[in-house]
Amino acid sequence: SYELTQPPSVSVSPGQTASITCSGDQLGNKYVSWYQQKPGQSPMLVISEDMKRPSGIPERFSGSNSGNTATLTISGTQAMDEADYYCQVWDSSTFYVFGAGTKVIVL
Amino acid sequence: EVQVVESGGGLVQPGGSLRLSCAASGFSVSNYWMTWVRQAPGKGLEWTANIKYDGSDKNYVDSVKGRFTISRDNAKNSVILQMDSLRVEDTAVYYCAREKVPMITADAFDIWGQGTMVTVSS
């Protein structure tokens, strides 16, 4: 079965850049999506197809994917960005797979 | 407004059954693959099942195969998750979500409901 690995947490100061990684075997050959989930809320799509931002998602959210690692980057991180972030891919053997999630802490 | 609303969660004993519903508005479920994702308390997201826009294809995570059944009622613009032989480890918030591109799977989930809580306990 296909697996995605994320760091449990990432800490960032307000205004700085947060980078959240997602690793998987030959991940660069798959499309990666990213979701933001705040406490008590439903997940929200912030990046699809590696780097596409849905309407309404701030430009400070960006994505990349190459080799075995995809990265969600939050530039100029704001307090409101504190949340759990999940990467997700589709795999032909296991269908949809999520990473375990990364808590972004804005110090 | 494009949205989905889940209902049907509750407390059930191990071995029992529950039927979750996902009512869509602002779009037609007959044009989209639809998915259920669950989240156990304090845990991450787990894709659970999905169904093709015409109902001809259904997929499940291994842990629910043979116990859960996904279906759709296009007339009511809704998706159903029938959960039988429930186990304690099925306890979770169950989210209904739309797969982003019409008639395409293997993509992302762009519309999520607020979730419905299922608790399996004696």
Describe the 3D structure.
The complex is a heterodimer of chains A (107) and B (122). By secondary structure, chain A is an all-beta fold. In chain A, 0% of the residues lie in helices and 46% in strands. In chain A, the strands form two sheets. In chain A, strands 1, 3, 4, 7, 8 and 9 form a six-stranded mixed beta sheet that branches. A three-stranded antiparallel beta sheet of chain A has the order 2-6-5, with no helix packed on it. With 122 residues, chain B is an all-beta fold. Helix content of chain B is 0%, strand content 50%. Chain B is built from no helices and eleven strands. In chain B, strands 2, 4, 5, 6, 9, 10 and 11 form a seven-stranded mixed beta sheet that branches. In chain B, strands 1-3-8-7 form a four-stranded antiparallel beta sheet, with no helix packed on it. Chain B is globular and about 40 Å long. The A-B interface holds A 31, 33, 35, 37, 42-45, 48-49, 54, 84, 86, 88, 90, 94-101 and B 35, 37, 44-47, 50, 59, 61, 95, 100, 105-110, 112-115.
Task: Output the keywords.
heterodimer; A: 107 residues; mainly beta; six-stranded mixed beta sheet; B: 122 residues; seven-stranded mixed beta sheet; four-stranded antiparallel beta sheet; 0% helix; globular
